[in-house]
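ingest -> validate -> predict -> emit
validate: passed (alphabet ok, no gaps, 162 aa)
predict: started
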Amino acid sequence: MSQLIIRPATEQDIALILHFVRELAIYEKAEDEAKATPEHIRRTLFCEHPAVFGLICEVDGKAVGFAVYFFNFSTWQGQHGLYLEDLYVTPDARGHGAGKALLQRLAQIALEKDCGRFEWSCLDWNTPSLKFYDSLGALPQTEWIRYRMTGDALQTLAQPKA
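emit:
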């Protein structure tokens, strides 16, 4: 029987995290969008007061996946929520419980921190992941449209108008 362990990411995992980020970006057909550097990871996940956190999944001592999450806030609930930014499991480890173990640990963290919700996003074409999340009882939130602002649009909005 394989031993599966979920542990907090440490500063020694920076290269591993970036490796998983790159694999995830390739899987999501967005490799050119993955711009994170070791310094980005160091100053966000491993600073004095981090606002984002990571988990590493190991099977028999070999890292096979990771999750990165942060806490948001619901004014309607009056509680924090846990938002899963990224979840990735290597192809050879899929279907053996690594993804579910990562999600279970995140659910435990959400309850430990008195979160009112645990949320994430999934690409609409990622059928294996959508089926997996459905099998866990997660519900898609179809009534909300997610918006994103980057690059020039973000710079323009941030500039005060004279």
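The two ends are 67 Å apart (CA to CA).
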